[in-house]
Amino acid sequence: MTPPGGFPDTEYRARLDRAQAMMAQAGLAALLLTTEADIRYFTGFLTRFWESPTRPWFLVVPASGSPVAVIPAIGAALMAQTWVKDIRSWRAPDYDDDGVSLLAEALTERAGAHGVVGVPMGLESHLRMPLSDWHRLQARAGGLAFRDDAGILRRLRAVKSEAEIARIRAICGIAGRAFARVPEIAGAGVPLDRVFRRFQMLGLEEGADWVPYLAGGAGTGGYADVISPAGPRPLAPGDVLMLDTGMVRDGYFCDFDRNFSVGPPDAATAAAHDRLIDAVDAAAEIARPGASAADLFHAMDQLLTGGQGSAAGRLGHGLGMQLTEGLSLIPADHTRLEAGMVLTLEPGLELAPGRIMVHEENIVIRDTGADFLSPRAGRGIPVLEG
Amino acid sequence: MTPPGGFPDTEYRARLDRAQAMMAQAGLAALLLTTEADIRYFTGFLTRFWESPTRPWFLVVPASGSPVAVIPAIGAALMAQTWVKDIRSWRAPDYDDDGVSLLAEALTERAGAHGVVGVPMGLESHLRMPLSDWHRLQARAGGLAFRDDAGILRRLRAVKSEAEIARIRAICGIAGRAFARVPEIAGAGVPLDRVFRRFQMLGLEEGADWVPYLAGGAGTGGYADVISPAGPRPLAPGDVLMLDTGMVRDGYFCDFDRNFSVGPPDAATAAAHDRLIDAVDAAAEIARPGASAADLFHAMDQLLTGGQGSAAGRLGHGLGMQLTEGLSLIPADHTRLEAGMVLTLEPGLELAPGRIMVHEENIVIRDTGADFLSPRAGRGIPVLEG
């Protein structure tokens, strides 16, 4: 049975097996999961309905046996199309008891009355349920001990299966085709917010299911930041335009960007672009099992700042069911790369105060080294009509 | 100063004044906010960067004086374009201290060493930071007492200003124009997933900044559910197609749907569509200050099930900075409507087991009654090429 946009059962069974081995080691009787990516990881439950924050969703992963979904009735029919057989639902929102007693019962049943329940509590995690209900749950399931999941979800999700890698490669290809068509929609005189809208349309036309993320900027010889919404200012000759997108197909993200020069670039812009490409190459060169996240940071930073450390913070991160997930390319991250890890290489340069350039590619770690998932950009910044 | 996509300072000052009046009444020395909508409500900080779950963001709203933003350095330049002057940032992610001590200091400074800090803990809320950091914060700011925010954020955000209503009306108009163009992209033989992609493109072309939400379904005489992703099955004569979208412009959502018949509808489909329209009319008729959310539910439910209660759960909800927010049209919600509340009317019918139809419109409550923000659909289901 393959749920809409999901994988065959074997994929989820393999994930469950790996999780249960880690749970045994960590002494956990169950995992309690509440977020979209964590729940989908074990079930294949794929829907954009998570955009509504009203209803909580729960998955109980026991130390042995199959997962139990404790979810609002509105999702029961879709969950029934996954391999999860034990689905318990209530009509949400219920102001008296929004799934809490149903969840307490499922946890107690699967973890035992005094079991230890792992909940992702570390970096990048959050508990997607009201704190008041979290407190109620702890009171209601009084014998259970709730602890950190010992990083199990983070470790599991960091290493992708071939099926997952194929998904990420597919969406990278889609975004790559959209980037190749940017000259159709952008050039001197076109307002940046119009470029943003048209670029999202290109992504959809090329096959993205949706475009959860688009950021970027445009300015003379660089842009001020990479998170602001697009304004109505028209592109002008001499601008550097950057578009950075996280598109999704069948639940997996790409996350890479491209820079463009509006009209011929000046020498500084051309050189900066090529330095970013060289930095990506330097990291890709050493990206293989055994190297650390910090090693990749330093390889890029050496070329970018001569080893001074980048103000931009991190120079890349893990990627998969979320736009960003898992490791960070920063000096403090000593995670050892493993085959199957998917990450972004994202070097940045400050050309002048308030003028930056950022470049980004997506790779998967293979035993033989870096395998590019995004259609690798070369030296020579692409030029738009100026 | 108006931040990109935001409002003039006066809007945020008015919100702060109302919040501080409520905080005085509730005995709160400060509010601690962690989610996109809550932080944007007081600041105007608008970015799609929230798609990345890696970094936590914090806003401290003191009982008197101005808000303090405690945020990752990557957002400092954009926050500086808002009216918030006190911005404290760190280079995130920091594995040793991801903003916790900075936040503890800001809270202690603004709430006093033994102040009571309100955090949204009720229905529909969540704490967007790792639980482990939440525990660290409580240990670090040991004298502070963290309590529920007494529903302050929920109550504040429920009643929209004229500036907010204008935003919601604008995006409703954009989606309405996209819906009017559905005959250009859908008809017998077109796969549903292609319709989904093309519809999002129409929304962008008509002026949406992005399309965070699109759901729907298609099937003979109704659809099975409204949250599944679209599959490749081509539309066929006799299908009912439904598209339900949450598009965004300048940070505000619409949330409404339209049904279409592929080829001429049969009598049951035509009648069901008109019954949904009548249900909307019945609710709109009584939607004015003083009526309750439950009253609107019952007005619709009477027409839909003869008062048996709908299996669909709720028949509408609040709307604004989120796809769904605030009140629910369910029997248990006795919230009194107030002028300025924006909500959806969303009646549903089960035509046969596993065959439903849902219709949705958006209204704002005025002293004189319901004012439609979505271009109100009439009786007579629109027909696509069959």
Describe the fold and architecture.
2 copies of one chain form a homodimer. The first copy, chain A, is of the alpha/beta class and 386 residues long. Chain A folds into 2 domains: 9-157, Creatinase/prolidase N-terminal domain (Creatine Amidinohydrolase, Chain A, domain 1, 3-Layer(aba) Sandwich); 162-384, Creatine Amidinohydrolase (Alpha-Beta Complex). Chain A contains 11 helices and 16 strands. In chain A, helix 7 (162-180) packs across helix 9. Chains A and B meet through helix 5, helix 9 and strand 7 of A and helix 5, helix 9 and strand 7 of B. Chains A, B: This is Peptidase M24. Chains A, B: Pfam families: Creatinase_N, Peptidase_M24.
